[in-house]
Amino acid sequence: MNVMVAGGAGYIGSHATKLLLDAGHKVVVVDNLYRGHRAAVDSRADFVEADLAQTDVLEQTLREYRVECVMHFAALAYVGESVTDPLDYYDKNTGGTVSMLQAMKAAGVKKMVFSSTCATYGEPDDVPIVETMGQSPVSPYGWSKLFVERVLIDYAVSDPEFAFTALRYFNVAGASSDGSIGEDHEPETHLIPVICEAVLGVREKIVVFGTDYDTPDGTCIRDYIHVEDLCGAHILAMEKMQPGQTNFYNLGIGRGYSVKDIIESVKRVTGREFTIEYGERRAGDPPMLYANSEKIQGELGWKPNYTDLDEIVRTAWNWIEKHPDGYGD
Ligand code: UDP
């Protein structure tokens, strides 16, 4: 298929681009390079530097490349930043998606795979999380994504041919299995790369955010899914989506690991010691989040290939060890 990957220079979008090309699809990446990296975009893809707000450029690009499906990854994704600058999150994440949908409507593109998040569930009463649980985000970031889910539902009602799949990500981790691309955020806040940077000495230490949670070892539990498994789910969703279908799926491996589990895994994988500081809780971190991903497994036949934590961490470490400055831009 002809696919537009919006946000294709970012961490997840760049991995999706590579896997789409490997699977024989044609890709045009659209990215404003605000937080993405040009070097992360596979050379087999076409690249258009544009912002989501440029509806006319999006429309023109959709027409020019005869795009059949948009994979929409372009977004701001720092929970803390969304609290201090909520308008930016509603503008870029919610407004940006509306602009993309307007361009798609004008160009007659009828399929979207949308990057949603488990942050739309807020602090759930129970785990594992199933798709039918109530959604009550605790951050503007979570709301900015939940609003898009609502926009998609309403738009799909207005156009019976429009189809979308919204994938609610849990903790995306790891890097390309061939070592060619990886995770490079500025600032980096995600647990696995932060620990890897502590191993390399790029940062002085890893601070564990809270040890008094109501979990077996007192640290927070999350569901870490390998970025290639996550991107594989996008491709499956795109290929199987029928006109008018609307789907929501959780995307995790259905297993939780604590912060201490991740630290031990990085020690095993790297064979190195590093400085660990046990600090205060970070505001807004729910104690335990992991997915029930039976729906996507049953309906799309998706299965994660990476089910071993050390294997996920190993791919992250392989890339970070060779690229301590990320893409160097
Ligand atoms: N975390 C931590 N120290 C760090 C970064 C993260 O203890 O330097 C914890 C964080 O509190 C959470 C888990 O690691 O419980 C995963 O955090 P991350 O920011 O990677 O993803 P999130 O769950 O916030 O999406």
CATH class of the largest domain, anyone? Alpha Beta
Helical coverage, percent range: 25-40%
Radius of gyration: 19 Å
Biggest beta-sheet profile: 7 strands, parallel
Query: How many structural units, i.e. domains?
Result: 2
Apparent shape: globular
Bound ligands, each once: uridine-5'-diphosphate
Write the CATH fold name of the largest domain. Answer: Rossmann fold
Strand content: 15-25%
Structural class based on helices, strands and sheet pairing: alpha/beta
**Order of strands side by side in the largest beta sheet?**
3-2-1-4-5-6-11
CATH superfamily of the largest domain: NAD(P)-binding Rossmann-like Domain
Give the mean pLDDT.
97
Stretches with pLDDT under 50, minimum 5 residues:
none
Which oligomeric form is depicted? Answer: single chain
Protein described:
The protein has 329 residues and is an alpha/beta fold. It folds into 2 domains: 2-171 and 224-251, Rossmann fold (3-Layer(aba) Sandwich); 191-222 and 254-322, UDP-galactose 4-epimerase, domain 1, CATH 3.90.25. Helix content is 38%, strand content 17%. The protein has 10 helices and 13 strands. Strands 3-2-1-4-5-6-11 form a 7-stranded parallel beta sheet, sandwiched between helices. β5 (111-117), α5 (140-158) and β6 form a beta-alpha-beta unit. α6 (191-200) packs across α8. The mean pLDDT is 97. Uridine-5'-diphosphate binds next to α6 and β8.
